[in-house]
Specification:
Length: about 150
Amino acid sequence: MPYIAKQTVSAKAHEIDREWFVVDATDIPLGRLASRVAKVLRGKHKPTFTPHADTGDFVVIVNAEKVKLTGNKLLGKKWHHHSGYPGGLKSEAYGDLIERRPELIVEKAVKGMLPKNTLGRNCFRKLKVYSGPTHPHSAQNPQPFTY
């Protein structure tokens, strides 16, 4: 029986058709939400996944303020940022941050699960996070994402 070589198909930029998904973050643990959303942004849920190309879809996350933080993360986990000046390090507990800017928590968790290169930055641009139940992307007809 002759050997038939199979060729690996790499997705080209013009061949990728992107979809829009909407995810309701109500009572979903932050890490599980972030890992599943990162897979969709990267395109790993598609059979045409190509590691060196951005084959992912757009994701809209609503109700970011209702995401679930397990354990002692509301008080124990801190968000640090620096102004660039001496003594400019600021720290804020996630419990306070979720009241002030809940989108930032979700974005930071998803960004940490994407590649740290140009491909990861391009994937991150396809993420849209909103604290409430409404979003301005209804014209794109986003489909509800099922886990």
